[in-house]
Amino acid sequence: MAPLPGPYSGTSTLALVARASAFSIGLVYGSVKLKYLQAKSKSHNKAEAKVHH
What we know:
- The chain has 53 residues and is mostly helical.
- It is built from one helix and no strands.
- The protein has one helix spanning 13-52.
- This is Shikimate dehydrogenase.
- The chain crosses the membrane at residues 12-32.
- It comes from Actinidia chinensis var. chinensis.
């Protein structure tokens, strides 16, 4: 498996840790953002429903 190009290229432990932590941070950020957007759209839909009824 060839190392990826960019700042995290290489087979050193530091590079592997940096890549893994960047991936983890990305996953956590993505899931938090998704939950926030879902909650935001739910409250928005409730507000719209009150206006229409």
